[in-house]
Each structure stands twice: as structure tokens, then as C-alpha cells.
Amino acid sequence: MLAFVLRRLGTAIPTLFVIATLSFVLLHAAPGGPFDSDKVLLPEIQASIEAAYHLDEPVLQQYARYLGQLARGDLGPSFQYRNTSVNELIAQGLPIDLAIGGLALGVALLVGLPLGAFAALKRGSAWDRLALGVSLLGISVPVYVIAPVLVLVFAVTLQWLPAGDWGDGAPRHLVLPVLSLAAPYTAIIARLFRASLAEVLDAPYIRTARAKGLSWSTVVLRHASRPALLPIVSYLGPAAVGVITGSIVIETVFSLPGIGRFFVAGAFNRDYTLVMGVTLLYGVLIVIANLLADLCYALLDPRIRIR
Question: pTM, whole model, 2 decimals?
């Protein structure tokens, strides 16, 4: 197991190198620069600013400097947020995205798995069609519709919850963002688990277990659930990254100071180091999530062996 983890981490380094290289090349190939604006600066001032951020150097020299900073764990200074490094901006926004995304993923699992299991056990019934209809609605309605509707109902009309703001992480401020972000993931998990569990329940070994006199609850919980969770594990890898890094729509609607707003602002203002830093962060999170998914595969299915 340890050798497998070390091998996967070893292959992650070239992957992250490719991500860093592509983001550097694409950003520097885009027209305009981080200090281009409607207000024309004096040539001396423009040259001084570019020299301070090493933008007057050849591109290859800038690339080598950037790789050297990455090797030290330094993502460089932000061009837009003066006197602030990209590391500091990510440190400000990432805990918020981790909190919102982690809670949203937890809600999606706590609601989606029982809903999918209930639909699989009631296949063909009205309850099954109702569960499938609810999950289809969750997938079809986009987040930018769900979030404002929840604000309108629970914040404006009923006035039960605040309409936005981080509120230092108070539970009342987290409810609406978490529910809005969790809705589509809950629907997808429910449909995946329903289809997977229904297929497993038709397997010969399940019929054998029932023929031996085991109760239906024992068969489902001890023999069917673990293999039925394998598609969920596959989906949770990229889904975890999606919810943890947060949604730009969620951050905009609820005025959350996550890293999504930094990423968008950096893209519009050609803040090279900020965009590259957030892109590299996404890459690291994807590598970690996929590694954890592979490890969970071996724990859920004894037929899978990591060699």
C-alpha cells in the first residue's frame, strides 16, 4: 500500500509540472498585460513596474524563475493585490471553500445515498418514480437558479436565515450556501447509487445469500452496499474538488470571500501568478482526490488488489 501511494505521488509531480507549464504559456500568450489599463502610464513608470515584477525579462527567464519559486513552495506576488502574495490570498479563501464544500459534500452523501437506496429497493413503484423525479429536478435546475430561490424564500420572505455574507462561519450563514451547492451533487449521487445498487441486487451471489435465509437488511447492508458504492467513489474524486474549490455562483450570490472571486478577478486583470497559483491548487486537489478514491476502491472491494 505504501509503495502504491509513493508511486502515485511520484507520477503526480510530472502532472503538476505540465499543468504549471501550460498555464504559464497560455496566460503569457494572451493579449494584454497585468498593468495595461485605460490610463496610459509614463514609459519610465511602466518600465519601473515591469522591472519590479521581472516582466521585462525574456519569457524563458521568467519561466525558469517561476519554476524555481514553485520548488520552494512560493507562488509569487499578486500583480493586482499589491504587497500580497498568492500564497496569502489562497490561505484567505481556501478555508472558506473547504468549509462550504466539505459540508455540501457531506449533505449530498447523507441525503443522496439513502434516497438512492430507497429507490433501488422500491424499483418500479411510485416511490421509485418520485425519487427519480426529485433527483432529476436537482440535476436539471442549475445552481444559479437554486441559490436565488433559496434566498428569496428563506431570507427575504420567511426571514429565517441571512441572505449572505460569511459571518465568521456562523452556522446560520452556512445553511443556504451549503444547501445550494449540495443540491446537484445530492441528485447525482442518488441516481448513481440507485442504478448501482439495483444492479448488485440482481447478482447471483445476492440471490444465494437470500436463499441461505439471511434477512433483507443484512443482505443489503453487508453484501450489496460495498460493491454498490464503487461508482460513488469514482464520482467523489472530481466531485470533492468541485465542491471544495467552491462555486463562483455561490460565492457571488452569498458574498463569500472564497478563492473563486480571486480567480475570476485575476483572469480579467491578467494577474498571471494568481491564476497560475489557483490552477495549480486545483491540480493538487484533483491528484489527492483521485489517490484517495483509488485507496477506497481497495477497501470496499476485496477483489481489487493494489500491487
Answer: 0.81
